[in-house]
Write a structure and sequence with these properties.
It comes from Menopon gallinae (poultry shaft louse). With 262 residues, this protein is of the alpha+beta class. The chain has a single domain, classed as Sandwich (Jelly Rolls). A five-stranded antiparallel sheet has the order 1-4-9-6-7, with no helix packed on it. β6 and β7 form a beta hairpin. The radius of gyration is 29 Å and the shape is elongated.
């Protein structure tokens, strides 16, 4: 599974891909254009180890493209009047999900679009504070996810993007491997599929909740800064006005010493 960004980053510290609950780690040292976070579980490490052992070292396909599921949660800074596009590879038959939410900047709205590998827009541009798109049984290929801020000429936007790619066919492969060992795991596999599906839905809901929380926090900080700045400005105006009034009132009652001339 690949993530390609059109914009050029000056410094990238690390990129890590892990299955199931895993998320990318990608932080820029010089700018805050992107920052990825990672969450892993014990099952993640087990499946990761099994996949690494089974992969052919000579294969040109990246090892993480054969994982059962990958989830990515990251933030991007989109400058005013700019558009950023990202390309995510989706395996044939996989479930592709992407959502975005504007966390900070301007009117807290941006354009969001998803382009199919065939070149058709499956999610046309919409100027909204948040949106999402999901496709079951994908034909496979590189999907383009674009964040458009061209309508905003002065305000940059901080956007949170969440992408997941789930491959149900990988569970069938594990099932066949276990059946070759004369193990009956049909009920177990069905239970795991149900749990995995529920976990993905919970992650999507948690991502949306975290996005709303971050957006509310940014609005709170902006309002706090606005109130503080205007309060200081009003205090300064009142202070200057008071001094000016006192000065001119004293001028009105000022008596000049005039000596009479003979």
């Amino acid at each position: 599974m690949k993530l390609v960004q059109i914009r050029e980053f000056k410094s990238v510290t690390a990129i890590a891909v892990l299955p199931f609950v895993a998320r990318f780690v990608w932080c820029s040292e010089i700018t805050f254009h992107s920052c990825f976070k990672m969450e892993v579980s014990i099952a993640t490490y087990i499946v990761l180890f099994l996949n690494i052992v089974l992969l052919d070292a000579q294969s040109t396909v990246p090892w993480y493209e054969n994982l059962p599921a990958v989830a990515m949660d990251y933030k991007v800074h989109v400058d005013a009047g700019k558009e950023d596009c990202y390309f995510q590879y989706v395996n044939p038959g996989a479930t592709f999900y992407v959502s975005f939410q504007v966390l900070k900047g301007g009117d807290n709205m941006a354009g969001f679009a998803v382009r199919h590998p065939s070149g058709m827009f499956v999610h046309p541009y919409q100027w909204r504070p948040h949106s999402e798109y999901q496709e079951q049984n994908s034909v496979g290929g590189y999907y383009s996810v674009c964040i458009d801020n061209q309508a905003s000429r002065f305000s940059a936007k901080l956007v949170n993007i969440y992408i997941t790619v789930v491959r149900p066919d990988k569970w069938d492969e594990f099932n066949r491997e276990l059946e070759s060992l004369d193990l009956s795991v049909q009920n177990f596999t069905e239970s795991i599929k149900t749990v995995e599906s529920n976990i993905n839905e919970m992650l999507q809901f948690q991502h949306y909740s975290r996005g709303k929380e971050a957006r509310d926090y940014n609005i709170l900080q902006e309002n706090l800064s606005y109130v503080q700045n205007w309060s200081l400005a009003q205090i300064a105006v009142i202070f200057i006005t008071t001094i000016t009034q006192v000065y001119f009132v004293r001028k009105l009652f000022e008596i000049k010493n005039v000596r009479p001339r003979a």
